[in-house]
Amino acid sequence: MADDDPWMVDAVWRASDLTRAYLTQDRARVAGCLAGLDTGRLERVLVWLVLEHDELFDRLGEPSMAVREIDAVAALAPVETELAMTTAVRRVAAKEAGLTRAVARLPPLDQIHAIAICTVVMLLEALGRSRALDQLDAETAHYERMGHPRPYTIT
Fold first, then answer.
1. DSSP string spanning 12-41?
2. Cα dist. 71→85, 149, 154 in Å?
3. CA distance 18 to 16
4. Which of 59, 66, 123, 127 is a good FRET partner for 134, with 20 to 30 A between their CA atoms?
């Protein structure tokens, strides 16, 4: 985690919680992770998700991004973001565009969901659901050991 900036700590946890929500197929939590966040806070979540996605891509290599898996994960996205975000993610899967280019014109909320979905699909394809959740648990336990507990309550 970058530093003790409370907004960045919040962003890291929200990104982790959103990733977990997609992995556990929890539609209500997917919608709730980002509810009420202003543009500045959404942009911080986006920055962290991009860093996490890029680190995962470097570690695992280029995933196949199966359309079936993308559709299954994307179906959990909020309805108002689903079309634009799914279109962008499918462009990435078809190798028509890289992730950055595919989401560049989307609003921050749609960008966040598109990157989270790509990240989750990569995790599912490389590790499977159980190992991906174990990895996420290890990362969040590390945040807590570093003195960065979740700064909000999950409802």
1. HHHHHHHHHHHHTT-HHHHHHTTTT--HHH
2. 11, 33, 26
3. 5
4. 66
* Cα(73)–Cα(85) distance, integer angstroms: 12
Q: What is residue 55's predicted lDDT score, i.e. its pLDDT?
A: 92
Sign of CA dihedral 61, 67, 73, 74: positive
Cβ pair 34, 18 in contact under 8 A: yes
Residue 120 token pair: 């989750």
Rg of the Cα atoms in the chain: 14
| CA dist., res. 103 & res. 99, Å (int) | 6
Q: Closest by alpha carbon to 124, among 20, 2, 11, 6?
A: 20
Task: Give the pLDDT confidence of 124-153 residue by residue, as tens digits.
Answer: 999 999 999 999 999 999 999 999 999 998
Q: What global pTM score does this model have?
A: 0.89
- Tell me the two tokens of residue 8: 């960045």
Which positions ≥6 away from 18 have C-beta within 8 Å? Answer: 30, 33, 34, 45, 49, 112, 116
Rounded to whole angstroms, the Cα distance separating 27 from 24 reads 9
User: pLDDT (tens digit, 9 = 90+) per residue, 45-100?
Assistant: 999 999 999 999 898 887 777 778 888 898 899 888 878 777 887 887 888 888 78
pLDDT of residue 119: 92
